[in-house]
Amino acid sequence: MIMSSSLRTLTYGCFRKQVNPVIFRLSGFNYPDPVISTSQRRCLFTDEVLGVDRFVHFRDRVLSQFGRNKEKFLERLEEHLKKEDSVVLSEDLKNLIFLCENNENDINLLKQAINKFEKQNESLRFGTFQFGPVVMRLAHHLNQPDMALSLMEKDKINFYSQLSSVTISLDLLFKNERYEDVVKLFTFVTENYKFDAKYPNDFVTLYMAACYKINTLETFDQSYRLLRALKLSSVPLKIRSISFFLALAVNQNQPNICLEIIQQLHLKSYSLVIQSIRLLAFAQIERYKDVCDIIKYNLRTDRAVNKTKVVFQESLNQIEQSINASGKEDVIQEFANLVKNLDESGLIEKEQTIDQALMQPLEYVRKSKSQPPPKVNFQWSSEEVVKVKA
Which GO CC annotations does the UniProt entry carry (predicted)? Predict the structure, then answer.
């Protein structure tokens, strides 16, 4: 399975109504450790995708322009905010965001300015500058998850009404292993914010990732409900979102649900991650013939010719344990021969694990043909989507 840390009980939020999915518990199969380790910790989105790199570049320019006048500006603004009838100008708030440092005084000053700015009459605001994403990029740059979470309040919905504001804050929480908070913020946002889609794709990816990391039957139930809701609405999902759910299903000993979802995907071929999870699921229900047949098929296809990896070493190790425990000598020997053939053909991924592949950051996909394409990260891109058949 996939290791997880012990975390507090979650609230179901937007899925508070109890809906029990069909759960298949297996007997006679021992799982000494998580099938897929969840030890990898990092952001799911690169700074390019989140716009943090551009924020830092512009921030450096503003800091350079202010120079020694920075402290005077902050002191004057702090005194100004103490006046009950004071007004926060858009330009002052903008400068404050770029000048804010990672200390309690600066962060509190920014919170005060945002609170006053939000309470002002809208007639005092000019321009169309969106502050929400910039504030969240600051929080991400300073690595301040508490700051981001404290600002995502109901009375500031208009201030943080952009998809990017929420995505950046969810990614920041995930980066700091605040997986429960990711689930809670996702619930709060989908209940209170009005976007074109009820469940935006990037939100779902981070939510599924958090459920996968928490790795409990409760989070499996939650993510399964969400997946069914998305399936009914025919919303396309990122391959990564589906992969997180499938990995969680295997870790929670739900191979039948895992295989059912895989069969409903519109995929011409299975990725290394999904194929490995598929093999693990078949092994969990002791369908070893299917495991062997899949491996034989992959040894005959173009993947074998092109040396494209078809399965992770860790998955083969888990499957081998299961087959050895069955005591079926003919299957044990056949599987051993197939693994040898895979190894000789260079089709086993030995450098990475499933979890390491899942934790690879989603890369920025450039739209302009004149720009060189970014380095492809393993097998994920921010544009990969798939539909689950209704």
Answer: mitochondrion
What CATH number is attached to the domain comprising 367? Answer: 1.25.40
- Cα four-point dihedral sign 232, 237, 240, 241: negative
Among residues 194, 196, 249, the alpha carbon closest in space to that of 227 is found at: 249
Q: How much of the chain, in percent, has pLDDT values that exceed 90? A: 62
CB of 326 closer than 8 Å to CB of 286: yes
Phi/psi of residue 285, each to 5°? -100, 15
The CA distance from 248 to 263, in Å, is 17
Domain assignment present for residue 319? The answer is yes
On whether the pTM is more than 0.90, the answer is no
The pairing of strands 385-386 and 237-238 is: antiparallel
The Cα–Cα gap between 224 and 222 comes to: 5
- Whether residue 7 lies inside any domain: the answer is no
CA triple 217-234-203, angle to 5 deg: 55
Beta strands 311-312 and 237-238, pairing class: unpaired
User: CA–CA separation, 297 vs 270, rounded Å?
Assistant: 12
Write a three-state SS string for 249-266: HHHCCCHHHHHHHHHCEC
State the average pLDDT for the chain: 82
Within a domain: residue 50? yes
User: Nearest Cα to 23, choosing from 358, 253, 280?
Assistant: 253
Contact by Cβ (8 Å): 390, 232? yes
Write out the two tokens for 242: 């589906």
Residue carrying the six token digits 């700074």: 47
**pLDDT tens digits, 301-316:** 866 567 789 999 999 9
Exposure on the CB side of residue 301, measured as CA atoms within 13 A: 13
